[in-house]
Amino acid sequence: MSEIKELGMRDIGELKQLFSGIFSAEPWNDDWSDDLQLHSYIEELIGNSNSVAFGLFSEGELIGASMGSIKHWWQGTEYHIDEFFIKTAEQGKGLGTGFLEAIEERVRSKGVTRIFLQTDRHAPAYKFYLKNGFTDMTDHVSLVKNI
Predict the structure, then answer these.
(1) Residue/partner pairs of 116-122 with CB below 8 Å, 24 or more apart
(2) Where residue 6 sits, what CATH number does that domain have?
């Protein structure tokens, strides 16, 4: 049976371990070997006054997380998910869908009316989010400039 808890800085060690284990492997192959960089990244996501992070636990083990922040926008209050992940061995079992549904309930109680996130169109997560009711924002464009 799974349990959902709000996470904070006290959970950074567990989050770093799970996050790097997932995103350093296929299909992402991100290089999270620099522990200081990883620590700073996770701290930026969970250590701010508007940060909201949730953990999915199974038998006391952290197997999934959502890290993001509450933002107040003219269309209403939004939960911006920066990172959402489930332990690779636990994917495909419906846990992610259940976790998202529970997050929706939790953030709704905080006055949130929308959830916003970004993902790569060709990443496996894209189809997962579409299946779970997210839609493409056809007028939205993400831009980046290397300097």
Answers:
(1) 116/71, 116/78, 116/79, 116/80, 116/81, 117/68, 117/80, 117/81, 117/82, 117/84, 118/142
(2) 3.40.630.30
